[in-house]
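Write out this protein's structure.
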Amino acid sequence: MVYIKSLLFLLVPHFLFAQYTTISNGNWSDPNTWNIGTPPPTWGNYTVTINHAIVMDVSPQGAAWQLLVNSGASLQASSCQSLNAWGNAIWLNHGTISCYTMSTPGRVENYGVLEVDLVGSGYSNSVWINHYGGVWTSQEVRIVNHSVLKNYGEINILGNSTSCHSPSSPQFLFAADSLLNHGAITSGDLELSANTTYFYNADSASIASNGYLDITDGTTMLNRGSISAQGDIYISESSTATIVTNYGPISTNSDLFNYSGVEFYNYGCDCYVDEKGDVIINGSFTNHGLLENHGRVRSSGSIHNYGNIGTTDCGYIGSDGGSGALNNYNSATLFGPLVACVTLNAAPSSTVAPSVIFSCPPLASCFEQTVLLDLIRFDVTKRSAREVNLSWIVNQEEKGTQYFIERSTDGVSWSTLSSRQYKNKQQKYTYIDAAPLAPLSYYRLKTIHPDNISLYSEIKAIEVPYLNVSIYPNPSDSYLTLTSEEELPAPILYNSYGQQVDVPIKKETNNFYIDIRNLPSGLYLLKTIWSKDLIQKL
């Protein structure tokens, strides 16, 4: 047996020799709770360490005072008590803090549970950090001036009335320097208002508003995670340009407004296959600024363009599957090779570039999926249970024409299987895919003409059953049998480090017998290739 030992070093910020340290459960105001027989003052600079369950029956305050709540300890307000500071305080929570308000120009770091009705930091230079594993619940949060909020855990801003506080709208107001989210933030109405310099939503992070979302006043926003709102989304104008760069999904169950002074850059679709810029609007979309779209923008209602919408390479915009209107008003512009699945209503003095493609490609592709004019037919049929035959017939060909067979698992992201060159007057071409993708393979034909114009066939899909393979016994310390309904190539064995392990393998018909008697105990991966990898842990 192989054992792996790991050492985890956890650095926990703490205050050595705190002036006031709890020695038992009790009330904050009770002298018997504290190591020196007197509770902390309500002024000045002092240090406090909480190691027990403490009832906060007063409102602790001071200047640059320091508070540490250790793991397993708690600080619980008896009614509507608050934590306040007017200096550069440092508050670290590894346990539980529950109170009415917290307000400080200093630093607050949460590793545990933070339950605060109102976070109302009107000070400059405050720093709020919710670490991995930290759960912060409030009814209202207002962080303003030159402050920073970093979230790696979970923040819930519920917007509910309590016995101590009735929140106002927006329930989450951030009008400070930087909001950096690497975790999950859920709130009621959310507004990034004046003074918000930078707003970053990281990969796998999420921001969900149960009301409206307002991004305004010169904010620079970079989204790689997901952003959603039940209400309207406003990307608002200001004297300083608001710049939004989006690589992730953004959705609203209502309307989206992109105002003048806003530059909105969206990346995804088949234009940027590694990105996920998909804007879904379950209402109408109104644009007064710039939308440079390299991904998808889909609206179930009308699209009203008073500014500029387009792309420099490719992009898709759609309204209600093509039946919805795109109203291009006076002085508005549609530009670039934008695929527009809309019914266009263009004002006389508006501009629509001839490169804009009015088409509704399958699966909202960002490229035009026009049936080739010289393509008579494109057939995709089963040749056997796991072989697909592709054939196409063309009417006329130009010398230098190239054909590319493309395959996909989802009809959005494509890879090239093979290509065919122009053959004088051949007109009929075939290709056999001997390893189609289970459970569904999508195919299309891409044609590149001598003038470098690319056109696509319609997309065809065909069902492909998974290969029936079994491995037994598992676990085993002697022999392993791999059996399949069809012939497979010899399997390959890997150890837990990803290194290939050579073992004796005997083949009989569709069975493989693998001798693992000389292998040390551990975790191994057995890999055999058909149309996709089959990986079995031993």
